[in-house]
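Re: that backbone. Tokens:
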């Protein structure tokens, strides 16, 4: 949320050079109601406060609505949030940053392990038995890949889609990418929801994608 004026308090310059605040909201998705929110400065990391935001949101819910599920993007990739959700009995699906161990995990996935994603042409999902250190013991890794054409990939190294490519392909010039068998954009999701069958994995990915 960009602001103007040097005397504004509680704001800061973000990575785009904008003077701004960062609103963080936990909402009840089905009815579109905000349950808890806070405003951080533009350069503040939201992860340290994510678990507290979740607990405040849970306290605002009415009783008796059944099991709660949390979905959060990779900006909230934090073990503290996963632990807080686990302790509160909340099913979670949290986007993971594309760190080196996740890329290495791809090597253990065979082509037969990929299944078609729901309502997303060219996309497939797979499950890997991977859990970061200290995350709840029932955490698994859900991976989505989307097949791309070279026309869909910008040559600008700052482009967001460039970061979704496998590091080996990211290092290639666009001309050489055109000669590869397939180019995929990858996303990683850590979840404690039931993804024990291909159909359940596809359903959880579809639900997470619509956060």
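Recovered sequence:
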């Amino acid at each position: 949320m960009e602001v103007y004026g040097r005397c504004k308090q509680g704001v800061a310059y973000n990575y785009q050079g904008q003077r701004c605040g960062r609103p963080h909201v936990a909402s009840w998705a089905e009815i579109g109601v905000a349950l808890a929110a806070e405003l951080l400065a533009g350069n503040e990391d939201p992860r340290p406060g994510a678990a507290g935001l979740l607990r405040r949101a849970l306290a605002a819910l009415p009783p008796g609505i059944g099991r709660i599920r949390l979905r959060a993007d990779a900006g909230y990739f934090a073990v503290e949030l996963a632990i807080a959700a686990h302790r509160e009995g909340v099913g979670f699906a949290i986007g993971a940053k594309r760190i080196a161990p996740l890329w290495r995990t791809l090597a253990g996935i065979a082509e037969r392990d990929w299944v078609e994603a729901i309502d997303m042409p060219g996309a497939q999902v797979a499950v890997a038995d991977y859990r970061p250190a200290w995350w709840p013991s029932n955490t698994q890794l859900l991976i989505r890949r989307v097949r791309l054409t070279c026309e869909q990939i910008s040559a600008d190294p700052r482009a967001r889609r460039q970061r979704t490519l496998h590091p080996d392909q990211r290092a290639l010039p666009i001309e050489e990418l055109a000669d590869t068998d397939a180019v995929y954009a990858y996303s990683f999701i850590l979840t404690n929801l039931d993804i024990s069958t291909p159909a359940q994995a596809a359903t959880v990915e579809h639900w997470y994608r619509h956060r």
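The mean pLDDT is 90. The chain is about 25% helix and 25% strand.
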